[in-house]
Design brief:
This protein is an alpha/beta fold. Helix content is 38%, strand content 21%. Strands 15-16-17-14-13-19-20 form a 7-stranded mixed sheet, sandwiched between helices. Helix 3 crosses helix 4. Bound molecules: nicotinamide-adenine-dinucleotide. Nicotinamide-adenine-dinucleotide binds next to helix 7 and helix 8. The site of nicotinamide-adenine-dinucleotide has 30 residues, from helix 7 and helix 8.
Length: 498
């Protein structure tokens, strides 16, 4: 059994009340790690440590070059242990070793990107302002927001930790990171790497505990300046309400129900494989997954036959085996949720083209077969709600306008894709889709240089890109009056008369 402690104020420690939680390997259903479980007292201590590190410590006052050096040091530490941490994450989350190994490489590259950005940010700029009523110089300063509460989900545990911690550190903030209760271990491994780096104590604190207890305290504490959540839209609503009590800055990356549109001139072999990747990657547990596949009426039967054929080629099983394409879902609870959605699709009249249950050869573990529904109407629950499992809904359309209307008929606005051999035509469609990211002839690929986030109820703000990093800064305007003659000051006449 692996053992993990909380990381508070530069020290690994047990929870104040000694509680622990076992992490269950969803492929075997066996506990594999025992993790200290934070309560209110631990969360308060972590917040205080981050507050002290911000108000009194050297980190917010260090040069961008120093911040860059330390972020690179953490990236190097992660790279050196990436194989080992990929294994930890596979056991914790059920993500295949193919996927978690890829995540480690991306996490290292992203940490280096955030480190480099620390030096490239426009932290001090002179502003052009109209010189009226008097001569002045004006400066725009970007300063760290302060203490950040960072709450992350279970689908990409280490990547989500890096997406939060990278921009916050690049801009000089301090933070308390709270991983999801199902998947705390890779974030705590990252804490071990951070502990070996030159990052001052208390800048990063990692507490594993429930949303209701630790998450809500982060959202309401007057000592926390910003909350960044990646999670469900339901939790996003709650977090926004709680954060309102102290007017915290809030960034929300929430759920999605993205449309993936195949146009009638698409290369069907590529579009079909790409659409399966768009939906079934990581067993459908990605927020931007293309879960609604919109296909032209005249190609419907051909596309469905190809989808079924290619789905048969996906291997489901042991996530630790590099040959496996589909592992288990994160937990037995998530498996039940997904099977419940499949049942609701059947009850509303959709038809199963392939899949629909737990794989017969895997009686143990939180597995669900990749499932494709046809005869789906966009009003059905399976087309409107985020399932977060390997369930693809195929929906027919008769014109491009109808496809765009269906794509936009959702409370969400996170991602989506268009497949076509005419990139200009696809671009014109992409412009009409109300989501934060649209891929053309591709899916899921994200760059730390490109902002990522949602329209509508998929969130507020962006991560990645300049926008995502500057979201961890406050803007300060410094006005320097250049008039040294007292009676000539603009306010002199207002006080004493001309
Ligand atoms: P979740 O909303 O249940 O939990 C997310 C985090 O919020 C967890 O750490 C949880 O402990 C915490 N939390 C729960 N209740 C809370 C509360 N009342 N106050 C404060 N914190 C609370 O989500 P999940 O099931 O872990 O992850 C899946 C969800 O995350 C999906 O909806 C998915 O779309 C979304 N997601 C979004 C993105 C994105 O970038 N938009 C990326 C990944 C996942």
């Amino acid at each position: 059994m692996h053992e993990y402690q909380l990381y508070i104020d530069g020290t690994f420690c047990d929870a104040a009340d000694g509680r622990t939680l076992d992490s269950i390997d969803p492929a075997t259903e066996a506990p594999w790690a025992r993790v200290a479980r934070a309560g209110r007292a631990d969360t308060e201590r972590a917040i205080l440590a981050a507050r002290r590190a911000f108000d009194e410590g050297p980190w917010p006052r260090m040069t961008p070059a120093d911040r860059k050096r330390i972020l690179h040091q953490i990236a190097d530490g992660l790279e050196a242990r990436s194989q080992e941490i990929a294994l930890v994450e596979t056991r914790d989350s059920g993500g295949t070793i193919r996927k978690t190994s890829g995540d480690m490489m991306m996490a290292v590259a992203q940490l280096r990107y955030f480190g480099d950005m620390a030096e490239r940010l426009p932290l001090e700029q002179e502003l052009e302002v109209p010189q009226f009523p008097a001569q002045s110089k004006n400066w725009l300063l970007r300063e760290p927001v302060g203490v950040c509460g960072q709450i992350i989900p279970w689908n990409f545990p280490l990547l989500m930790a890096v997406w939060k911690l990278g921009p916050a550190l690049a801009t000089g903030n301090t933070l308390v990171l709270k991983p999801a209760t199902d998947t705390p271990c890779s974030a705590l491994e990252l804490a071990r790497i951070i502990d070996q780096s030159d990052l001052p104590k208390g800048v990063v604190n990692v507490i594993h505990g429930s949303g209701a207890e630790c998450g809500e305290l982060l959202c309401t504490s007057p000592l926390v300046d910003k909350i960044a959540l990646t999670g469900s839209t339901e939790v996003g609503r709650r977090v926004q309400q709680l954060a309102a009590s102290t007017i915290k800055r809030v960034t929300l990356e929430l759920g999605g129900k993205s449309a993936n549109i195949i146009l009638d001139d698409a290369d069907l072999e590529m579009a079909v494989d790409g659409s399966l990747f768009g939906c079934f990657f990581h067993q459908g547990q990605a927020c931007e997954s293309g879960t609604r596949l919109l296909v032209p009426e005249r190609l419907h039967d051909d596309i469905v036959a190809r989808l079924v054929d290619r789905t048969r080629a996906l291997t489901i099983g042991d996530p630790l085996d590099f040959a496996t394409a589909q592992g288990p879902l994160v937990s037995a609870r998530q498996q039940q949720t997904v099977l419940g959605y499949i049942q609701s699709g059947l009850e509303e009249g959709a038809k199963i083209a392939i899949g629909g249950g737990r794989p017969a050869h895997l009686p143990k573990g939180a597995f669900v077969e990749p499932t494709i529904f046809t005869e789906v109407k966009n009003s059905m629950k399976i087309a409107q709600e985020e399932i977060f499992g390997p369930v693809l809904s195929v929906i027919r359309y008769r014109s491009i306008d109808e496809a765009i209307r269906i794509a936009n008929d959702s409370i969400y606005g996170l991602g989506g894709a268009v497949w076509s051999s005419d990139k200009d035509k696809a671009f014109a469609v992409a412009k009409q889709i109300r989501t934060g990211t649209v891929w053309i002839n591709d899916y899921h690929l994200l760059s730390p240089a490109a902002p990522f986030g949602g329209y509508k109820q998929s969130g507020i703000g962006r991560e990645f890109g300049l926008e995502g990093i500057l979201a961890y800064t406050e803007i300060k305007h410094v006005h320097v009056d250049m008039v040294d003659n007292r009676p000539a000051k603009f306010w002199y006449g207002a006080l004493f008369g001309a």
